[in-house]
Amino acid sequence: MKIYRTAIFLSLLFMGKIAGQTVNTGDLSVAPNTQLSTLFSFDNKSSGDVLIDGNFIAYANFNNDGLVTYSNASNGKTFFIGTQQQLISGTEIAHFQNIVFENTSGLVPFQLNTIIEIGKNAEFKKGIVDADTYNGKMIFDLNAFHTDASNLSFVDGKVENKGNLDFEFPVGDQFYFRPSYHEKGANVNNAYTTQYFLQNAGNQHPYTSKDDTIITIDEVEYWNLTQDQGSEKIVLSLTLDTNTTPASFFEEKPDTQLGIVRWDDTAKKWVNEGGVTTDLVTGANYSKLVTTQVGGYGLFTIAMVKKADIPDSDLIIYNAISPNGDGLNDSFYIKGINQYPENRVEIYNRWGVKVFDAASYNESDVMFKGYSDGRGTVKRGEGLPAGTYFYVLKYTKGTQPIEKTGYLYISNDK
Predict the structure, then answer these.
(1) Whose CB has fewer CB within 10 Å in the chain, the N or C terminal residue?
(2) pTM of the model
(3) InterPro entries per the record (predicted)?
């Protein structure tokens, strides 16, 4: 990385105002504990290098044709604040460590016509970022995340996430925040891009072409998920919202359940990926979450599917635990699992984050006792909060691979 030695008051010598613009053609360094504000449209020319280690406030448009970056030792923050629409453009990727979107000019004040990359955190305070209309993209780097995304502020367009941490994609369409959640593998080189569409998937993806287990498909919305780097299959969670999802998908029936479906380009049909549904009791705008491990990538949406026929088994799964140390229901007990040592048990929370993963699960020592064995956003060895989780049990009976999924309830009652 280039070393910037120019203090902010010297850096201003490289800038000038041209027809209502603030133009940078040299080295501009916003040092830690300092602040630079641009009331005019900011234009960083191809010869311009901008280092943001302090606070940079853009009240108007922002264009980057050169280098915009930060030093890892700092905690620089860029603010897009205004009362008029702001165009974020440029031929080069702008790298921001922290960024804040807060514009009161309307519901969709930000026009993203370039690629910007977040190194640490993006705060969605006020205003939707329109990347779809303007062919832009927001990238979250290895350890980056975001806060405050809601119907008032999210990305309408493509969002990419790099790395192996579990991630909520802050995507939506029109005026609705409709995130997807990804639980990933161990490869830090993973990269995925997601976009949500509040529209029909089109004639190239006919809803009449589907697995026999699929009854009804949500035809008014879908997510497009691509795997840009990596080869692992993620655990995907999709949200349901009464503002966008048809009412029929909120009706419970004894012989059906919600599932995630994916358009398979090879088979030319929608395939049933399965799923477990949880009801959300948080303050989120959406009310249900469907979670499953996917078999591929592409277009995804929600569907009403037939309840899976589980092969006859001599296993008895006790799906409630109370890890309070009283010797009763202290662990997730699967009676008979010792007969099938070639097995794996995975447990996920309602956001699709894996909290436990063990091979050769048994009835004595390799058992889930309400503590996280996860990584990323869930600390290893930490007691998990009470609530609804879901499990995936995979084992082989003879030569037949069997997979079971279901709910697991954790109670912390003393």
Answers:
(1) C
(2) 0.78
(3) T9SS_type_B
